[in-house]
């Protein structure tokens, strides 16, 4: 009997952990659905020497413009950092202001040596 009780308690604990894990996954998925995500294009060179451009977009919610902006800025920064430099934004164009529409940010930037 003691062995069966121990096995039963172990099974109950595993079941409880499994239920907690499922609840956590469901909560994360629900939050991700509400927050939305941003996606960015690859960085490309413009027709002006030393000037690059990257665009990002995000949908869903009031802060979609901020996610699009941050994604574009982050891509520019990462691009320059991979080259041992720092980014400097020259222009940014944004679109989409209405809720639940796609918001976009297009950033032109340069890479400069780090000081």
UniProtKB/TrEMBL annotation:
Keywords from the UniProt entry: Signal
Cleaved signal peptide residues: 1-40
Name the UniProt record assigns to this protein: Lipoprotein
Protein source organism: Paraburkholderia phytofirmans OLGA172
